[in-house]
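Hi R.,

Here's the input for the 2-oxoglutaric acid complex you asked about:
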Amino acid sequence: MKQDTRKSIEACAARYGEQADAMRNYLLEGEKQAYALDNRGPIRFDANGDLAQDILDAYSRYGFYVFTDVLQEDELEDIKQDLEAMRKTFPAEPFGKLTTDGKPALGADCQSLNLIWAKPLGDPLGGTDLANGRHQIKLYEPEADSDAPKDVPFVLMGSLQFSDACLRAYAHPELLKVAEAVNGKDFAPFHESLFIKDPGIGAAVSWHQDGNTHWDSNDFDEGIHGFNFMAQVYGSTAVNGVWVLPGSHKLGKIDITKLVEESGSERIEGTVPLVCNPGDVVICNRQLVHGSFPNSGFEPRVTVNFGFHRRSSVLGVMGAGMHSQAEVYDAALIAKRSQVLGYAIEARKQRYPAEEAYRYQPFVESHQTFTWDETAKTSLKDYNLHDLSI
Ligand SMILES: O=C(O)CCC(=O)C(=O)O
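And here is the predicted structure with 2-oxoglutaric acid in place:
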């Protein structure tokens, strides 16, 4: 069932001043085009247990596919409860160490950067050198209401150490079968985060492509920088969701400034939003041109984001130093970083004992086994210092 987003589209358009009509038309038209694409439906396997070929073909054609109804009600409820609990422990101010009631804040004792803040309805990355300057243009920043908070939560990195429910979603057996079909049985982890876009205040992520390391590689192809799963807790709309330029993952590094010039505005022609219901999970190629506008509508969006790479894309590669310090990813480091998946699979087994658990080929080959308990949970602290950032 499609979400009714008309009120949010109107509210969003109203914040764009003389561009209001253009924004409204863009949102409405993009939503229509998104639903017209043939890249949406449940995860399906063929008689051999392989991911259906038409899904792989559509993913290759467009660079994304919307898997519907992947996370069920109980799993979404667990994630929402964790989100609520985490938010109570957010620091009282950006990068602070204490909560508003003076307790140690989430991640206060971590070495790695976790919670990133932004100004309400801002675009903190666009037109800056952050993330190797990949967000080439600054998006329009609508004025937030006068009672909006000064800073709003934006992205939480290393999220699996803070939420058991997100950790369990990371080990969803059907999603991991998809990862295997796209990146091979020895697929490697990338990075996990939450994108938080609260209604009326959530910040933008300007247009960009994610890859960094392999654009000029002799082996360059559409899958070399991996993909992200984007699991939607509350759904995702034209107003609050990520927009993508279908097919752009095949084109190499794109001059986004030029695209914007050619489109006559930041509303890049041919782009569509990732429209999802709660529980849907998008597989999104990291090379796609994508971005999200400030959330000036009424629906919240929280994306549980987790990505995977081909092993050949990371093994022996010098990292980009964007999600973690720059280092060479040797087999031992990849094995260490993959342990999170071992714990996630065990954590999921405890919550869903009747479900057939995913068997990760590298663990089978190395006879590695894992136990999910308090010691394991403690060991996840700062696991993201070694995200495989390419
Ligand atoms: O969720 C968003 O708004 C942006 C996501 C994104 O840019 C990414 O996952 O690379």
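One thing worth noting: Residues 195, 205, 210, 228, 242, 290, 292, 303, 305 surround 2-oxoglutaric acid (CB under 6 Å).

Cheers,
M.
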